[in-house]
Specification:
The protein is of the alpha/beta class and 356 residues long. 42% of the residues lie in helices and 15% in strands. The longest helix has 20 residues. The structure holds ligand TLP.
Length: 356
Amino acid sequence: MHDVVDLRSDTLTLPTPAMREAMATAEVGDDVWEEDPTVQRLEALAAELTGKESGLFVASGTMGNLVSVLSQTRPGQEIILDLDSHIFNYEVASAAVIGGVQTRPIRTERGFLSPQQVSEAIRPANIHIPPTGLVCLENTHNRHGGTLCTPEEIGAVAAVARAAAVPVHLDGARIFNAAVALKRRVREFAAPVASVTFCLSKGLAAPVGSLVCGSREFIGRARRWRKMLGGGMRQVGVLAAAGLVALEQMVERLAEDHANAKRLGEGLARLPGVRIDLSRVQTNIVIFFVDRPGGAQTLVSECAARKVKIHQIGPTSIRCVTHKDVDRDDIDRALQAFTEITRHWERHGGPPANGH
Ligand code: TLP
């Protein structure tokens, strides 16, 4: 039980005592010179887990996705991705601004492009048309509510792209959630794609960092882009040390977060005025809708007054993310707050119209 129940994101997780200890005692060197032994251990472990030749430690998931785009496209090309993908929505148009590539967003049912959608979107050679440079996938899918796709589904999309000589990048910020939920190995999801990014600082609770993995040659290019973006860090083993603890100690417990998300989703489904598709609650994200005018905004502020923090992601939609700093009692407290607020609305004909 925590004083504040913070369901805004799994990025809010605090480092564990074991991480703090590992950070304090980490063996370090200059990583731009490729002489930091702790970073090298982390990158080697990431490569092994993803089944790729090499790994690269980067500052964030955003930087991991960007260096992957930059290393696999050239200006004037187009990347195919889902309309609700993180790269398209939340990465500050970096692919366009820094990479000079055009994004081609495609609407999907659960966040995953089908092989047919990819096949139809790949551009033919024509002087008028930007050549397709990359296909980007996301698993688990953030804006679709932590939805999963299987290694086989990724393989089917990658086969279509491969036939057109187009590489595939996987934004696997939460790929360990997918792996734990489906009881599959991360390397199975990564096998069909040329590059994969995963994050240490979300459900795995490290304070900083993501890994990009792919072929040795790809990582060489990504390392140059990282340097150009100002991401060449020096004695960064102090951060990598926490990342090693994240990978060694924090993966299996993600199942608890999934169970808590399910409990939260099932509780929400019983409330008046709340709409939720429980079939989408597959990992640690719960998205639900309050369709009354002003309802979502009012729910956020009334929850905050009860020390329950949730995040509005659209006019009527709210996202809750479970993580290691939210336990089962906290979930029940959040549900208690939702119940009090929505029952009160029910008795008084809805939330105040101005949303306050
Ligand atoms: N997502 C954050 C916000 O940016 C929305 C969150 O709170 O969920 N890919 C995916 C699928 C992500 O969800 C995120 C972060 C990233 C990439 C970027 O990672 P960071 O925040 O490390 O740059």
